[in-house]
Amino acid sequence: MYHRWSHITFLHWRYPAELIQATLPPGLKADTFDGAAWVSLTPFLLEGVRPPGIPALPWLSRFPETNLRTYVRDERGRAGIWFYSLDAGRLPAALGARLTYGLPYFWSDMAVRVDGAWRRYRCRRHRPLQPGGHCDADVETGPPLDAPDEAAIFLTARYRLFTLFAGTLASAEVEHPPWPLREARLERLDQSLVRVAGLPAPDHPPLLHFSPGVPVAVGMWHPVR
User: Fold this and answer.
1) Which InterPro entries match (predicted)?
2) Distance set, CA 210 to CA 108, 214, 215 (Å)
């Protein structure tokens, strides 16, 4: 699949590695930085979604998305992302990703609003899929980061996703240029996606990054051997 991830904010929280490890399937290990595992919320706008050889359709190919994820390595030491949930503003996209990649997508009422330096994200899961699942965030974007530090690279430079497809651990390659990162300030956050995923609610402010976006290609999944 080809698409562009635009107006993306990364909100990262530290978690005990043993807590995150208990949530992962066999074959994956929690990846750590600075002595901790990390969980991230990433609201953004998905644009130009299409498979190879098919043009993007105006209504179907542009919609908001919000991901809840952590960082892992497989038994071969390959780094990647494990998704706890993915919310999409289009039902066909959510169903298609569940069927073709086995990813835990939810259909949600969503919006991404651009207001100068502000990005305002809204997400409400449709009942009865998961009552109470929501995420509202207001973020003020700042100047570019000239040189992303090690934490920013660890948390954003990920080029593989892992999934369980028909009970089998699988992975897919994700290709995109390095994120052009900016500073960001969180004005407001009201979310329950962490809690409804079965994780303790964060007890400290998140580390933030923002990016105007990059083009992305996601390959087919392959069993992890």
Assistant:
1) ADC_dom_sf (IPR023375), DUF2071 (IPR018644)
2) 22, 12, 15
Give me the count of residues in the chain. 225
Prediction pTM value: 0.94
Residue labelled with tokens 């990262």: 12
| Structural element, H or E, at residue 176 | none
| Residues 10/208, Cβ–Cβ less than 8 Å | yes
- What does the alpha-carbon distance between residue 41 and residue 11 come to, in Å, rounded to a whole number? 5
- Alpha-helical regions (H) of the chain: 17-21, 91-101, 150-156, 193-196
Question: Which among 26, 1, 4 is positioned nearest to 177, based on CA atoms?
Answer: 4
8 A C-beta contact, residue 144 and residue 181: yes
Task: Return the closest-CA partner of residue 33 out of 146, 144, 156.
Answer: 156
Average pLDDT over residues 78-88: 97
What is the domain partition of the chain in residue ranges? 2-223
Whether 28 contacts 162, CB under 8 Å: yes
Q: What is the pLDDT of residues 159-189, one digit of tens each?
A: 999 999 888 999 999 999 999 999 999 999 9
CA distances from 171 to 119, 160, 218, 221 (A): 31, 7, 10, 5
The conformational region for residue 222 under phi > 0 = left, psi -120 to 50 = alpha, else beta, is beta
| Residue 119 · residue 9 · CB < 8 Å | yes
